[in-house]
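I hope you will forgive my troubling you with a question about protein structure. The full record is reproduced below for your convenience:

——
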Amino acid sequence: MQPKSQVSVTSKDIFRVYSREVFRYPRLFFLVFLGGLGIQVAELIYPLYLRRLFDLLATGKPGTDAINGLILIVGMIAIAKIGGWIARRVQVYSIMNLESRGMANLYSSAFDYLIGHSYHFFISRFSGALVRRVSKFASSFETMVDGVMLQFVPTTIFAIGAVTVLFLRNHTLGIALGAWIIAFVVFQALVARLRHPLRVARARADSKMVGSLSDAIGNQNTITLFSGTKHEHGILQNVVEFWRKATMRSWNADELIWSVQGALMVGINIGLLYGAVIYWNRGLLSIGDFALIQTYLLGLFSQLININREIRRCYDASADAVEMIEILKTPHEIKDQPNARPLTITNCEITFKNIYFSFQDNKPILANFNLVVKGGEKLALVGPSGAGKTTITKLLLRLYDVSKGTIEIDGQDVARTPQDDLRGKISFVPQEPILFHRTLMENIRYSRRDAKDKEVIEAAKKAHCHEFISGLPETYNTRVGERGVKLSGGERQRVAIARAILKDAPILVLDEATSSLDSESESLIQDALQTLMKGKTVIVIAHRLSTIMKMDRIVVVAKGKIVAQGTHDELLKKGGLYQKLWSIQAGGFRDDETMLEKNLNQPEILFETPEEK
């Protein structure tokens, strides 16, 4: 099973995703646009009356008529300003509602699609980086909608209006301003395309830095115990330096662009004022026209400067969005088939037929693997590291799909069953259970979320975790910390077993379920497991033979194939590996893989004890 190659994301992909959210609320979109139009109309009207005000001041004489005219002009300016203020309130309240709803939808849709990816997808990536991708995906929507609706569209309206008014006053000056705006926009478009790869590189460097931080912080205890602070600091410094260089390349490009744009603005300002002086000298422009031109230029420059900032922010946002959209465009490895039907349990027999599975084409983990687990049978899987024991259970749970062959439950192909329905029929207790940073009540109830409190407590009693929970200050309302770090390994394991007991599924899979328990806890849990196993089909992976000696059948797996099987007593009578392993454990030796290789160095030896990682 080779990792999927990285998908490509274009600007059209980003536009399509975000525009879909915008147009989901057409009324809000219309109000945002209407508000922006009102603001720009007010900004265009104001300089026209300012021009009349200056002309009247320059040509009129103090008196009643002049005062009345000036007051009327001031009144019209006031109306324009108040209208602009109202339009801005409409725009701001509308866009806040639009963006908050769109961001909420994006958070939900990104989570829904992300969580649907396979087990293989998640073990290949940093969880912290994935969380950041989701967060940046939603915040990028806000940035880009702000840029388009609050800057790009309003500036376009203002620029067209300013050119039109100036053209009506003087064709030459209007054409000059229009040509300059076109040249400015073309320059922006060209440099934006050249600058985008630098933005993407910076975003990737940022995600890499966050992933490195997440990895180190998540393993703080390991760093401390192995005196690795300086080592980790060195690793982080390299990642940070890579980010800094990517950031500087992006910022240097921005500063160069700013310099060119500033020169363009200085040039058009001087050019228009020089032209205005020439036409004023010919009697074609008034004093008020100077105020009109300068006001329009100042307003246009202000908006263009803001647009340049927004373009930079939008391209940053676009680069941030790319990483999440890559995930959204990556097909799910494990999918429900269109004709998938719920699993019907009758006898609960599990059949592995001619299974072939590999992560790399030339290194199969399972090859032509066949196994039948009878309904109600308690079966144990043992074998060396990398033999495929845990892979067998993961294929049963469809955490991976088989490359060839079929896995059936009561004659039904699990690949043709909805994933949630399949996993609802299986209780799984892993070697290292991970808990939510929620209460103990919520963690146990997670396997059956409609269970009542008394049912949760009863399951906890059967798993022998009620005792330690009752001793906690907040008992079942105690939060267990991220990944359950506030509990010991044995306590986490017992909570996981309580969760399985509460679920009461017809199939039970235990992957080293007692590995984290001390001898006393294990003896307590064995009775609970025996009760839990009654009436169920059970698959157990364990290297402690005391855990599996009462199983109906023990299957020894090596190199993806079954090499021996039988009951505990039958395998002991056969001698060889199993008998030697039992002798080692019974003698008090640690079932260590390296020791086995040294002490059981015989051609027929195929069994080693630690579980594959």
